TrEMBL record:
<comment type="subunit">
    <text>The complex is composed of six subunits: RnfA, RnfB, RnfC, RnfD, RnfE and RnfG.</text>
</comment>
<feature type="transmembrane region" description="Helical">
    <location>
        <begin position="200"/>
        <end position="220"/>
    </location>
</feature>
<keyword id="KW-0249">Electron transport</keyword>
<keyword id="KW-0597">Phosphoprotein</keyword>
<feature type="transmembrane region" description="Helical">
    <location>
        <begin position="125"/>
        <end position="144"/>
    </location>
</feature>
<dbReference type="InterPro" id="IPR004338">
    <property type="entry name" value="NqrB/RnfD"/>
</dbReference>
<keyword id="KW-0288">FMN</keyword>
<keyword id="KW-0812">Transmembrane</keyword>
<feature type="transmembrane region" description="Helical">
    <location>
        <begin position="44"/>
        <end position="62"/>
    </location>
</feature>
<feature type="transmembrane region" description="Helical">
    <location>
        <begin position="309"/>
        <end position="328"/>
    </location>
</feature>
<feature type="transmembrane region" description="Helical">
    <location>
        <begin position="96"/>
        <end position="113"/>
    </location>
</feature>
<feature type="transmembrane region" description="Helical">
    <location>
        <begin position="20"/>
        <end position="38"/>
    </location>
</feature>
<keyword id="KW-1003">Cell membrane</keyword>
<feature type="transmembrane region" description="Helical">
    <location>
        <begin position="257"/>
        <end position="274"/>
    </location>
</feature>
<dbReference type="InterPro" id="IPR011303">
    <property type="entry name" value="RnfD_bac"/>
</dbReference>
<dbReference type="Pfam" id="PF03116">
    <property type="entry name" value="NQR2_RnfD_RnfE"/>
</dbReference>
<keyword id="KW-1278">Translocase</keyword>
Length: 341
């Protein structure tokens, strides 16, 4: 009697690209709400405009490639790219900056390589890095958080997007910027004299990171991704910042709590490095991949020219992901280690 031969993967429940992408969009909501509370409607306007532009570029690329537009738009991958890139952009970004970033992410980083599933680099981070290198002034001008200045209303936020010259908002450097530029004050004095630093990681930033942590933990509970890469990244970042923390001198790189709750740490750990296409695949590989990203983030933050290094660290490790997977393939059942019969 012939036996039925079944091959992996074996699905244990309803799973689809659309369902996964929808969960990622839902998980960003807490972070978006906190960003809106502390920095005004700028991020929300970025997302609304960026989503329209991303869908338009996605439809254009699909039409040029002769692919069914409705089928591929419904997988929500373009919306996820738009959300992730627009969250990373400074609030009240001008429309042309958002459009340029979306074109880079959707057309260059995604469809140039063959579309979803074939892109070797994270599309949102490609768009972000291109903007950061090309337009450093616009990309490093963050709005003042609630408590230091009044946050603009929704109509003012729309005006900032489409008529940038007419918008007169208060912008300033981020806590990571200020710490990198500091050369004379002790950490304790820096925190005391500048209210932007808040309690742990910067006024507003600490709660933004906690909100993205909550969304990321929910995604982990939903088994959208495994714990290996994000936990390895956060553990390595914590370890290095603790080992090299000198107690708070003027040359200090910051405490572990500051690095964990400032900048895009939690957003990067749970929403960027967990991209299933451009990251490592094997479980051991994900541990190595996440740990190296954490190390690069700390090195670039402390020794590099850019205060927040998530995008650069992710793209560098996207290069290395296939190499990591090659050397961390799990042992095939019935065979020995690599090279053994």
């Amino acid at each position: 009697m012939a036996l039925m031969r079944l091959s992996s993967p074996h699905a244990h429940g309803p799973a689809s690209t659309q369902r996964v992408m929808l969960k990622v969009l839902v998980a960003t909501v807490p972070g978006i709400i906190v960003l809106t509370w502390f920095f005004g409607y700028g991020t929300l306007v970025n997302i609304l405009f960026g989503s329209v532009v991303a869908l338009a570029f996605e439809a254009l690329a699909l039409k040029l490639r002769g692919r069914p537009i409705g089928f591929y738009l419904s997988d929500l991958s373009a919306l996820v790219t738009a959300f992730l890139l627009c969250i990373a952009l400074p609030p009240y970004s001008p429309w042309w900056l958002i459009a340029t970033g979306m074109a880079s992410a959707i057309l260059l980083a995604k469809h140039f390589y063959g579309g979803l599933g074939y892109n070797p680099f994270n599309p949102a981070m490609v768009g972000y890095v291109i903007l950061l290198i090309s337009f450093p002034v616009q990309m490093t001008s963050w709005a003042a958080p609630r408590g230091l200045a009044a946050t603009p209303g929704f109509l003012e936020s729309v005006q900032a997007c489409f008529i940038p010259a007419a918008f007169d908002g208060i912008t300033m450097a981020t806590p990571l910027d200020l710490l990198k530029q500091n050369s004379s004050l002790l950490i304790e004095d820096l925190w005391t004299q500048n209210p932007l630093f808040g309690r742990w990681g910067g006024l507003g930033w600490e709660w933004v990171n906690i909100a993205f942590l909550a969304g990321g933990l929910w995604l982990m509970q939903q088994r959208v991704f495994t714990w290996h890469a994000p936990i390895a990244m956060l553990a390595t970042l914590t370890l290095l910042s603790a080992l090299f923390y000198d107690g708070g001198s003027s040359a200090s790189g910051g405490s572990p709590l500051f690095h964990l709750l400032s900048g895009a740490t939690m957003f990067g750990a749970f929403f960027i490095i967990t991209d299933p296409v451009s990251s490592a695949v094997s479980l051991r590989g994900r541990l190595i991949y996440g740990a190296l990203i954490g190390a690069l983030i700390y090195i670039i933050r402390v020794r590099g020219n850019y205060p927040d290094a998530v995008a650069f660290a992710v793209l560098i490790m996207n290069f290395a992901a296939p190499f990591i997977d090659y050397y961390t393939q799990p042992r095939t059942y019935g065979h020995g280690e690599r090279g053994e019969p």
